[in-house]
Amino acid sequence: MVFSGNNVKIKKKILVVDDSALMRRVMCDIINSDERFQVVEQAFDGEAALQLLRKNQYDGVVLDVNMPKMNGIQLLRMLQNEKIRARVMMASTDTCDGAKVTMEALDLGAIDFIEKPVNIMYLKSGEFKKNFLDILYAVTTSRQSNISSLPVLSRQTQEESTQKIVNMARKSQPVVAGQKLVAIACSTGGPKALQSVVPRLPAELMAPVLIVQHMPKGFTQSLAERLDSLSKIKVKEAAEGDVLENGTVYIAMGGKHMNVTTRGGRAVITYTDEPPREGVKPCANYMYESLKNSSYAQIVCVVLTGMGADGTKGIVNLETAKKIHVIAQDESSSTVYGMPKSIAATGLVNKVVSLDGVAQEIIMSVGVK
Fold it and tell me: How many Cβ atoms are within 10 Å of 170's Cβ, its own excluded?
């Protein structure tokens, strides 16, 4: 927390953008109830918000998607075009179209999102309030903004880079013989981070890839479709009973915990419905712990950007039964340096790499056919 000279807490300044007067009031009440934040401006559409963002700086922007005159997506595009920096949290609907639009918003630099409930009573519940404030805190304290400092690589450049790494991997045999599996955990900033990792993985990867990205039900399907459209490796939302295959990426379904079990000598996806753990569902700890009894010779554990500590207990537990190779994203390229920091503190991390180096480290660890 930041203090001024007279020891008074400096509240983070928030702009709320929503065409619904009721939603604005509810969100403002939630934000102002927390001593860390203060709503200093409100706007009822993207056009009004753009005028404010051209003149003022805010610590965080809570942005609705569907608005008259200029919607949330159009506003994010204008901010990109005019190079106006902002830390944006989207308020998204849970419809299929809403999920796709949310993926687009994250592409355009929004850091995270909250699912706007249809039920007004849930909107005023303690659970929604806690989730809302946790996400807002992660967004306002993020190292990243909507304007990326990383160069945007063309698909051709990306594929050429991947091919060079594939050629290197073919010349050097992975140290550990036997089947391998890659298990990735990520949260805030994860969807964007995954776009720097998954499309760089080749279809010939000699391992299945499991991903737990903290997201509500409905949004993970859109994330899988988006990544699949950008990648040569196959990407899908993991379904109950899926048999794990090399060269396929399986994204955990939102709202359930993904596990790996063995049936008839084959590793398959199963889901369980325990309560949230570490405050999230899906929780990566369950995924890692379920791999203790698998037939894989080595698990490559990858921890990317995210708030909290999900993945740490699971990896610590997994290490008692399996050979593991742990890759953690570095602080400077993480949107929120929570989960990578937590696993780094255990001393189990083998490689700390920037986001740009994660795919190469995965490929070199498991090999290609």
Answer: 12
CB 184 within 8 A of CB 212: yes
Residues forming the active site:
187, 214, 310
Helix%, strand%, coil% for the chain, nearest 5 = 35, 25, 40
Strand order in the sheet with 112-115: 37-43, 12-17, 60-64, 88-92, 112-115
Tell me how far apart the alpha carbons of residues 43 and 57 are, in angstroms, rounded to a whole number: 14
The answer to whether 88 and 139 are in contact (CB under 8 A) is: yes
Residue 311: pLDDT over 80: yes
Rounded to a whole number of angstroms, the CA Rg of the chain reads 21
- pLDDT reading at 7 higher than 60: no
Identify the pLDDT of residue 152: 65
Q: Provide the whole-model pTM.
A: 0.92
One-letter amino acid for residue 140 of the chain: T
For residue 360, give Cα distances in angstroms to 36, 169, 186, 344. 40, 9, 18, 20
Q: What is the per-residue pLDDT across 84-108, written as a single tens digit (0 to 9) for each? A: 999 999 998 766 678 889 999 999 9
Asked if residue 223 lies in contact with residue 215, where contact means CB atoms within 8 angstroms, the answer is yes
- Mean pLDDT (the chain, rounded): 92
Helix residue ranges per DSSP H, 219-354: 219-230, 284-290, 312-318, 339-344
| Dist. CA 280–CA 302, nearest whole Å | 18
Residues 187 and 121: their CA atoms lie apart, in Å, by 27
User: Whose CA is closest to 248, among 286, 209, 294?
Assistant: 209
Other Cβ atoms closer than 10 A to 78: 17
